[in-house]
Amino acid sequence: MKKVAVAVSAAMLAGASLAVNPILTHKYSADPNAFVWKDRLYVMCSHDLDGQKGFDMKDYVLLSTDDLVNWTDHGDVFVGGKDVKWCWNLYAPGVAQRNGKIYLYYPNSGGPIGVAVADRPEGPYTDPLGKHLIGREMPGCDSAWVFDPAAFVDDDGKGYLYFGGNGDTMARAVKLNDDMVSAQFPGIMMKASKDGKEATGMPSFFEASFMHKHNGKYYFSYSANFPDRGASIDYAIGDSPLGPFEWKGAMLPNFNDNSWNNNHHSVVVFRGKNYILYHSRLLTNRQGHGNVYERSVCIDELKYNDDGTIVQVVPTHEGPKQLKPLNPYKANLSVTICQDENVKVTMADVKGKNRSVVTVGGEGAWIRYAGFAFDKVPASVEVFCRAKGEATVEICKGAVDGPVVAAIPLKDTNGAFAKAAAKATNILKETCDLYFVFKGAAEGVEFAAYQFRK
Ligand code: FUB
Q1: The predicted structure's pLDDT at residue 5
Q2: How confident is the model at residue 337 (pLDDT cuts 50, 70, 90)?
Q3: Predicted structure pTM score
Q4: Which end of the chain, N or C, is less surrounded by CB atoms within 10 Å?
Q5: Does any ligand 1 atom lie closer than 6 A to the CB of residue 207?
Q6: Residue 8 pLDDT exceeds 90
């Protein structure tokens, strides 16, 4: 990704340091499908390519967090043409889990829809059918766009797949069989009544179907169309996964940071609170690109009124509060990041394991890790890197030009990942953010992990 034009200095931090939206700043991401796996929040996202001029996405990027502020970039976990042979233009994904397996539903652009299976969100994924699961030719699946799959497994274990696009009568659902890789036909048209009138379709339905359950009620949400509703995320409430539904209006109206362009969302409960994930054009706009095809995923809290309707979401730059601090004394992955500049996340062989690591773009690149709790004054800190020349990892407190906590010299590591360490200073028993700033011949340095020592 091109360098962010904005440098974070101590003077700027008063406002900027609090902002954790968008949740990923070294690549563009869109169409977030959030789910909880083993008490960790995961988000499978479309991966908008730098500078793309249309929706040309080739893979999905997987993020996860346990504190809502530092997000692990697991890399591009599902690649069109590689993990699935017949699909190469990956639009919005949908994820379900059942019997300890992950089911990933994906469209090839505007359709058809396939399914892939894995033992964990990071994959590897296999394509059990070798062809699509849902196509326009299948009974009741004649939506204009057979895309934007959203999977939902009800409390009774029954699975559903929602999809479709481009018209009030184009939202569809199929029941999934227990194997999650076959479905029951015909597909069913999703309908909601509006203003007391009989339901003939989903009012102003455009794309981005999603289903969630709250207090025994079913919430079907979707992006409404531009002419009627300005691509707001609207919703309808019903008593069963297939309706009947009553239209309730916008849960996430469109907004300026999104350049009033398309949106796509999901809703998730994590550690007792409700969240909405959606995309915006905040990062590309901040970078001065203003490219509507470079989207970025954001998260905010979602609240309900007493009558079960949703309090309209006002997108924030701050995002939710950090749920728990980072532990500086454990081995932390370099790719669990709050914000960064001029770095990439790439795959590398680290001690025999194929893992995502940070690759530094050049001198001055930095990574912010938010909210460490130092319960004791640290004596030293070590990083695990692969380097080719002489560089320094400068760790600064609170800002890229904040007090220097450590300056760790890196030397040529002869093609392998190796430890480098330095004395730690300037840290008390305190909670603070740390910036890892790369100096010297830092371009190409691969950074895997770090750990403070007491
Ligand atoms: O990301 C490509 C398409 O844009 C998605 O499939 C739609 O929902 C919209 O977000």
Answers
A1: 38
A2: very high
A3: 0.96
A4: C
A5: yes
A6: no
